[in-house]
Amino acid sequence: MLVTDWGLVSACEGPPLRVLRRVLSTNPAEKGPDLGMMGARSVNRRHFHLSMLSFEAEAAVQAEPVPPVLPVLYLDDVMCAVMKPEKLLVHRTEIANGDTVFAVQCVREQLGRRVWPVHRLDRGTSGVLVFACDADTASRLGRIMMAGEVKKRYAAVVRGWLEESVDCRHPLSLPEDPYLKKRRGPSEPQDARTVFIERARGEAPVPSGRFETTRLGLVEAELFTGRRHQIRRHLKWLAHPVIGDATYGKGPLNRAVAQWFGADRLMLHCARMTLPHPVTGEEIDIRAPLVEGPFRSAVERLGWLEAYEELMNGPWREPPAQAQLLA
C-alpha cells in the first residue's frame, strides 16, 4: 500500500487511519516506491486494494468464533458421546442462518478425527449427543436407531403441573418448518408416543393470566417414537408447553420467566440414552449431569437438583399402570 496524503484517506470510507498506519509499519513490502518520489497526494490504488484485503482478512480472523469444548460422556474406538450445549446446531443445515460453529466440527477438532452424527438434537436442546468414529459404525448405529433399540430420557421445565403420569399417543404429522416455510415428507399424521412423569413442582413469581404466580414442573419424558419436535408438540397438546419454546410456547410468558431465571433458552435437556454397542452388543448407558449453565441455574433456583438426579438415574420402566392414556 502507498498513501502519502492521510487527509485524503481519512475522507474516504475504509479502515481507521491507525490501522492503515499499522499495516504500513508492519508490511514494508507493501509500501511501494519511495514516498518522496511519488508526490504529496499520490495514492497507489493497487497497493491500497491489497491493504484493504489485508485489513478485511485480519478482521475476519478476529471475528471468527472459538468452538466450545464439549464435555465427553463416552468414548471408545468406534463411537463417542458428548454433552451438546443449547443454541448449537449438530451440523450445517438450511436453517444455519449465520451459524459458523457446529457440534460435529467441535467434536472433530477435539478428537482429531472425522466423526459422523447418528441422531440429532434441536438447536435449543442440550444433552447427550452420539457420534460414530467411522462410516461403518455410523451405518450400524443408524440401523439400531431405526429398530427402536435406543432408550431416550429427557428433562423438561414446563408450564403448569401434571396431575398424573401421562402416556401420550397423540399422532403427529410432519410440521411446517418455521425457517423453510414448507413441509418435508409425509404430512399424514403418524403414530407418536411419549410418556411424561412429573418429578418436581414449583412456582415462579411471574404473573400468569389472572394468577400472580406461574406454576412450573420438572417433567421426565421418555420417547417411544421419534417424530420431529415430538416432546415439545406433545407437551403443547397437553397444555403444558416447555418453557422457552419460541415455536410451541407463549412468547410473553417465556420472556417473563427467562428474566426471572436470568437465562433465555429452551428448557429441554436429553438427560440419558441407553443403546447396544454397535460392535459388542453390550448395553451402553450414557448420562448427562447438569453442567454450569442456564438449565442448571433454573433447576437450582427452583430447588430441583435432587429431583433431576433421580430423573437421570432412575430405572428404565414401562409406562406406569396408572398413567393416563391420551391420544
UniProtKB/TrEMBL annotation:
Responsible for synthesis of pseudouridine from uracil-65 in transfer RNAs. One of its GO terms (biological process) is tRNA processing. Pfam families: PseudoU_synth_2. GO terms for molecular function: RNA binding; tRNA pseudouridine(65) synthase activity. InterPro entries: PsdUridine_synth_cat_dom_sf, PsdUridine_synth_RluA-like_CS, PsdUridine_synth_RsuA/RluA, RluA_PseudoU_synthase. It comes from Sutterella wadsworthensis 2_1_59BFAA. Gene3D superfamilies: Pseudouridine synthase (3.30.2350.10). This is tRNA pseudouridine synthase C. Residues 81-236 form the Pseudouridine synthase RsuA/RluA-like domain. The keyword Cell cycle does not apply. The keyword tRNA processing applies. It catalyses: uridine(65) in tRNA = pseudouridine(65) in tRNA. Keywords: Isomerase, tRNA processing. Its EC number is 5.4.99.26.
